[in-house]
Write the structure tokens for this entry.
Amino acid sequence: MDSVLLFEEAVDASGNSYSCYSGFRVGAALLAKNGKIYKGCNIENVSYSMTICAERTAFFKAVSEGVTEFRAIAIAGSKNDDFTKPCNPCGACLQVMAEFCDDDFIIILSDGEYKLSDFLPNRFD
Ligand code: THU
């Protein structure tokens, strides 16, 4: 798994971000154990709480196609096309990751690689 390439896919996915309310574009690239990459972006709504994050878009795309085993996710977020500042996954997305992934699931941000357990050490299961 090439984490630089996966991060580039996440930046690419942010190009479809629908984020007219926050102006914060997020893309995610989710690598499944079958080798396929599922990309997602954040999709906002005038009723703000209906917004969905890029990570959950990617997970739900994969799961809805019958794919439930994953190796890694790359996340890229920016207001100005500068993706150097890390975009940490929110708590809701971490909980969705925890549903499908083990503690050693890899989370790739602009500043390096993490494990799911770094962000969510004591999961509810
Ligand atoms: N957002 C994501 O897509 N992923 C994250 O990990 C954090 C936040 C989105 C939600 C909203 O559209 C925008 O970023 C600002 O919060």
